[in-house]
Recover the amino acids of this structure.
């Protein structure tokens, strides 16, 4: 059993991660932003003093979809970089045994060759619309490797693909693509609309991982992985956004003819598909919830909450 501090532990990814870590017998302390604003170094020192962790799992982040990233790039860069850089340094200084950082698939170059292997991370610049957020996370990989090299600090970096599931942000402007589409189709059905407007052209592809699978991967890596190299967390399955929209539409009784594509909105990175072999080989992770099941679970949760 370890004393584990989980920042963002009350959030979308944090809640199931905390559940899995506690189920494994660990003593977990949850950090909430209303109690400790981790952009302030004084609060970082205070939470480390209060919790006395052996392990830190850093999940706290300012996140959003393409619309939110386009509207607030400076906030996404500043908040995420400031929290992560200061927290990792303080954890090392306090003698924390292990530090787990969770990045983003946006770290990959805009035109990376699918499936993305971890060795492609530095082969180009990320998609401009999400680059400030992506680079704030990518710097935590650089910091982790530098602290390992100079200080022998055990810090690992995980790169999850697009997350979705119960508890997500279902705002159509600031949320990610899966919850945004679920909210749009739900509203269209409720109001008797015959058409649903979707962002972009629908030709871009994405890889989606159900939230509980991603949380389980983090719990496994926290216990079993101590390597310097980053690790992809995903399913390895690539899905066109148009197909995703059609699948969600079908759950709400809409056919493909109901979709109207707003090509004035950005598509973002053309393709996303991860090579997930390192996670399988290094700590035994494989996703178990396929997209059809995950979308059904997510839409049912959303309707129940409404």
């Amino acid at each position: 059993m370890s004393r584990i501090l989980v920042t963002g532990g009350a959030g979308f990814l944090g809640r199931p991660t905390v559940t899995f870590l506690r189920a494994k017998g660990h003593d977990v302390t949850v950090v909430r932003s209303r109690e400790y604003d981790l952009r302030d170094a004084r609060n970082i020192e205070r939470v480390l003093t209060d919790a006395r962790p052996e392990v830190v799992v850093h999940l706290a982040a300012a996140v959003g979809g393409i619309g939110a990233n386009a509207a607030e790039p400076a906030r996404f860069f500043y908040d995420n970089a400031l929290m992560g850089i200061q927290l990792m340094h303080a954890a090392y200084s306090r003698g924390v045994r292990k530090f787990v950082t969770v990045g983003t698939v946006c770290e990959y170059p805009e035109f990376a060759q699918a499936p993305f292997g971890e060795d492609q991370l530095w082969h180009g610049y990320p998609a401009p619309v999400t680059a400030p957020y992506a680079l704030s996370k990518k710097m935590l990989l650089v910091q982790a490797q530098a602290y390992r090299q100079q200080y022998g600090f055990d810090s690992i970096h995980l790169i999850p693909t697009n997350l979705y599931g119960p508890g997500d942000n279902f705002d159509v402007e600031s949320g990610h693509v899966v919850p945004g589409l679920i909210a749009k189709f739900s509203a269209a059905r409720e109001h008797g609309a015959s058409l649903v407007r979707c962002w972009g052209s629908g030709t871009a592809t994405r890889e989606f991982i159900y939230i509980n699978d991603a949380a389980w991967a983090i719990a496994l890596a926290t216990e079993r992985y101590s390597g310097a190299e980053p690790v992809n967390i995903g399913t390895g399955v690539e899905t066109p956004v148009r197909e995703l929209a059609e699948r969600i539409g079908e759950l709400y009784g809409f056919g493909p003819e109901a979709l109207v594509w707003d090509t004035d909105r950005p598509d973002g990175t053309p393709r996303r598909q991860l090579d997930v072999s390192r996670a399988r080989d290094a700590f035994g992770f494989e996703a178990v919830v396929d997209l059809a099941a995950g979308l059904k679970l997510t839409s049912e949760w959303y309707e129940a909450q409404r």
About this structure: The first helix runs from residue 14 to 23.
